[in-house]
Amino acid sequence: MGVWIIAGVTFREAARKKMLWMALAAGGAFLILFATGLHFQAKDFATHGMSPVLGREISFAMVTMGLYVVDLLAVLMTILTSIDTLSGEIASGTVQAIATKPIPRWQLLLGKWFGFCAMLTAYIAIMVGGVNAVTYSMAGVTARHLARGLSLMWMESIVLLSVTFAFATYFSALTTGVLTLGLHGLAFLGGWIEQFGAITQTSRAVDVGVVASILMPSEALWRRAAFEMQSPLASAMHLSPFTTLSVPSLAMIFYALVYLAIALVIAIRRFSQRDL
Q1: What DSSP line would sit under 107-128, residue for residue?
Q2: 3-state DSSP percent of the chain in helix, strand and coil, to 5
Q3: Interacting residues of 253 by C-beta distance below 8 A, sequence separation 6+
Q4: Number of folded domains in the chain?
Q5: CA–CA separation, 54 vs 199, rounded Å?
Q6: Among 80, 101, 151, 264, which is 20 to 30 Å from 112 by CA?
Q7: How many Cα atoms within 13 Å fall on the side-chain side of residue 141?
Q8: 8 A C-beta contact, residue 223 and residue 248
Q9: 3 state SS of 130
Q10: Full domain range(s) for residue 23
C-alpha cells in the first residue's frame, strides 16, 4: 500500500514541476511544426503528381523521423525530471520527513519509481499517438507494428529512469545527470559506429557498437523500435536514414530487461543502507 501512496504523491509532484510542462510545451510545438511540414509536403506531392508508392515511402520516413524526435524528448525528460527526486531530497534533508514514517525505504524508492513510470508512460503515449494521428490524417499512414515500437521506446525510458535512480543514491543531482546522459551518449555513438561497421563490413567496428550497447542498452532499444516501425520496403532497400543494417536482437531486449532490474535493485539496496 505504501508503494502506491508514494507513487501517487510522486506523480502529483512531477506534474507540478516546470520541467514537465516545458517538455509538454516542446512536444506540442514539435507536433505543430511536424504537421505544418507534412501538410506542405503532401500539397507538393499532389501538385507535381508524385508516384503514390514513392509518396507513401516518404511519408513513412517522416513518421520515423517524428518518432525519433519523440524518443529524444522522452530521453531528456526522463533524466532531467528524475535526477533530483532522490539526490536532491537527500542533499536538502527533505527525504527524512518521509523516511521516518512507518514506510520501509524500499517502498519509498519503488513508489517514486512507479510514479515516474506513470508520468513517462502518459508522455510517450501522447507524443507517439500525436505523431501517428498527424501522419494518418494528412498522409494516410502510421508506423508499422506501432505497439511493439511504442513498448520499446517506453522500455528505453524506463531503463534510463532506473539507471538515474541508481546513480542518484550515490551522487549529487548534477553528477547523476552527467553520468546518465554520458552513458546514453556513449550508447548513441556506439550505435552509429556499429551501423557504419555493418555498411563497410568491418566486424571490429560492429563489435565496438555491441560493447557500447552492453554498457548501456538504451540506444539499442530505439534502433530495434525503428526497425519494427519502418515500412518493409524502406527496411529492405535502405531508403530511410533510420534504416539499420545491424538490428539489435531479441536477446538484447532481454538483456535490457535484466539491466533495468539490476539497476533498480542496486538503487533499492543502496538507498536502504545509506545514511540520510
Answers
A1: HHHHHHHHHHHHHHHHHHHHHH
A2: 85, 0, 15
A3: 152, 155, 221, 224
A4: 1
A5: 24
A6: 151
A7: 22
A8: yes
A9: helix
A10: 2-273
Query: Look-up: residue for cell 542533499?
Result: 91
pTM of the model: 0.88
User: How do the pLDDT tens digits run along the chain, 276 residues long?
Assistant: 668 777 777 777 776 777 678 888 888 899 999 889 888 877 776 666 666 667 677 778 888 889 999 999 999 989 988 888 777 666 666 666 666 566 788 888 898 899 899 889 999 999 999 999 999 988 888 888 999 999 999 999 999 999 999 999 888 888 999 999 999 999 999 988 888 887 788 888 888 989 999 999 999 999 999 888 887 766 655 555 566 677 888 999 999 999 999 999 999 999 888 766
Question: CA nearest 19: which of 83, 69, 62?
Answer: 83
Q: Which of 123, 86, 105, 78 is nearest to 260 (CA)?
A: 78
Query: Cα Rg for the chain, rounded, in angstroms?
Result: 20
